[in-house]
Every structure is written in structure tokens, then in C-alpha cells.
Amino acid sequence: MKTTTMLLCLITMLLIASAYSDEQAGMRIGMAHRDTLSPKPTPFHRIEDIMGMDQKRHGLISQKIKSKKGGAKMSLGSGFDFGAAQYFSEIMVGTPAKKFRVVVDTGSELTWVNCRFHGQGKETREVFRAEESSSFRKVGCKTKTCTDDLSRLFSLAICPTPRTPCSYDYRYADGSVAQGVFAKETFTVGLTNGSVATIRGLLIGCSSYSNGGGFRQADGVLGLAFSDYSFTSKATNIFGGKFSYCLVDHTSNKNISNYLIFGSVPSSTTTSPARLTAQLDLNVLPPFYAINIVGISIGDTMLNIPPQVWDVNKSGGTILDSGSSLTFLADVAYKAVVSGLERHLVGVKRVKPEGLPIEYCYDTSKFDEKKLPQLSFHFKGGTRFAPYRRSYLIDAEPGVRCLGFVSAGTPATNVIGNIMQQNHLWEFDLVASTLSFSPSTCL
């Protein structure tokens, strides 16, 4: 019975459709190639027009795809509770993914973790066991990648057999060292839209040995320098040519954090003050993020600092570095800054905390920091970065604060460290070569 009913319904629907098609004319819309609407385009201009339109379309498609993916979002907090002057993030490495706490370093090209490979490597707080990851692929020592491409990352010439992994002895400016083998691995990252994604084939260092104060309580380093082999290169290629971070106060506890984001900053994380923009010089001091500082002022007074201090061609220049804590200035600039600030600290008792490599420290238990004038860094083009006073009169211990500057010698590259950057949102646009920033609580 049911089958008969269904057949009757189907026959009725077909009859109705047939009657409808007989009574109604179909809709017809004319189509013509866009070139027929133009007055006799030449072959050259036709191809030029096609290329222009297609490139714009491809750009819009790429933007939509990337916006659907969302940006990569990683936690970022101070290492204060761990006795470290660095900022830490957490990364998920391997298959299955394992979590590691790493130093966030815009001055380092290599991302590495403490690692055991074929039994080599020391047991630390956390260690990556390479053989347990199905996505771990060592880089061979006979490959062009090892012998040529990774030479600037201190790849070694040791190669007893073609199957031997490509080894490295990675050296940092402060004398720290990491030694191990290069590999390609998969990273798992959270996205700003709440989902997760994997980044495959990312260069990683499997470090069997590391030594340096900067690595204290960390499992490795997240290399964010401007380099073809850094984490930044791979992540910005996937999520768009920008990355940003907001550094919480350097004395914050570990439960207070913000984010390192690859891709555009979500509107919910932007701050109310208008963001300022300056040029980012990506090719003058590679792989560092060079900025074009032209002077420093205290209050309304521009300090008398020779122009060559800021000139890369005269062994000067300035970089922004999340891996350095204090701010390093060429000696003549250092002397101008500390003497300029010291004039406003007359009557405040100067002290010398034991083991602290900072020259100017004071007993500020009864000192109002508002008495200290505003220090500002001036960019070429007129943009001005005015850090909070607690970023250059920094807490050293209870009741003691120090001027957070160190002489870098002469000549020297100036380095704006992470304490000076704290409580600001920084966005690096690697496509437009711009640096944007604005004050933020980073909470």
C-alpha cells in the first residue's frame, strides 16, 4: 500500500512539473566576455587587465582562506616566578604533540628544545624524545640544506656517513650555547577562532646539550628572528605576514599572561589609544628587527647624542629584541641618558645591590616615580615611543629601583629590551615593513 501511494505521488509531481514547464518560459541571461565591452583592447592590455584582475581576486581568496583559519595564538608570560628575566611561551611539538616551555626570542633564528636522539641528550625538566614522534625527520649531513643553507645557523662539517644527522653548535651573543641535530617536525598551535592547526615541516633543533643563564627553567627557545628558517617565517607564510605580542609587567606572576599572535590582531585585543606606526628596517641588520631611532629625549629636552650612534653604516643602529631584558645603548648615548635621569634623582640615596650588573640603583622606598620626567625614543618620521616610567626605573628588589640601561661600548648596536617594551602591544608587519605599537595593560 505504501509503495503504491509513493508511486502515485511521484507520478502526480512529474505531471505537475511537465505542465509547469509547458506554460512557463525558462529564464535566459545573456553572457559576454568583459573584453567585448571594451573599445578594441590590444592583446597586451588585455593580458595586463586579466593579470591585474586575477591577482586582486587571488589576494581576496587568500585573505578569506586565512581569515577562516584564524591566526595562531600562543600564551606569553613573564619568567619572574621561575627566576628568569625572559618571557616564556608554550609550544606543542611532535606527533603525538608534547608541550614545552620556551623562551620567546625575536633575536634568534633557531627554534629548539631539549631532546634525546638515539640515546644522546641529558634529562632535564622536559625532554623531547625524537624516536617517539612519528613526524620527526632528521636533516642529513650530506644534504645541501645542511652544508649550505644552515651554515649561518652554525651547522657542523662532521659527516661520517650520509645517514648521519646534520649537527649544530648554536651560539648566542651572551655566550650561551645549544648543541644538537637539525630536524623537520610538526607543531600544533591554537588558533584565534578557538580551533587548532598543525604546522608541518618546520625546522627544529634537537638539543642534546645547552648552557646559559637565559635558558634557566626553560625547555628551549622559540626563534622569532627575520629568517627563512625561523618559526616566524613558516607561521607568517601560513597565517599572514604579521605577528604581534604584548608583554605583561616583567614582575608578573606566571598565572598572568597575554598572547603571541601570528596573523592580524583580533579586535578584542586592541587597545583604546591609537596605535603609532614606524618603519621596520628588515634588511639592514638581518636577522634582527631594526628600527630607525634618531634620538632620545627626557622631558622636553632632546639629548645631545651624535647621529652616528643611530647610523647602521657607522656601526650603530637599533634593534627591538624580546630576548634581551635590559636596554643596551652605545656608550655616548648611555652616558647622556643616565646623567639626564640622574639629575632628577638628586637627594635619592644611591645603592649597590650585590650581584646586580647595573650601575645606577637607588633606594626609592620614599620616591615618587612621577617626579621622573618622561623618557622617549624618537623614530625617523616623527613617531615617538614613550615607555612607562617603571620600564626604565625598574624594580630590582624591595625598595630598590635601578635605571634599566647598560653601556654597550663603542661602536655598538643599540638594543631595546623586553622590560622597556612591557605593557605595550607590538605588531610587526613583515609585508609592509612597519612596526605598530600602543600602550596596553596586556590583560
Automatic annotation (TrEMBL):
Signal peptide coordinates: 1-21
PROSITE patterns: ASP_PROTEASE, PEPTIDASE_A1
Domain (Peptidase A1) ranges: 87-438
Keyword Protease carried by entry: yes
UniProt-listed InterPro entries: Aspartic_peptidase_A1, Aspartic_peptidase_AS, Pepsin-like_plant, PEPTIDASE_A1, Peptidase_aspartic_dom_sf, Plant_Aspart_Prot_A1, TAXi_C, TAXi_N
An example molecular function term from Gene Ontology annotations: aspartic-type endopeptidase activity
GO biological process: proteolysis
Residues annotated as the enzyme's active site: 105, 321
Keywords of the record: Aspartyl protease, Glycoprotein, Hydrolase, Protease, Signal
Homology family: Belongs to the peptidase A1 family.
The protein's name in its UniProt record: Peptidase A1 domain-containing protein
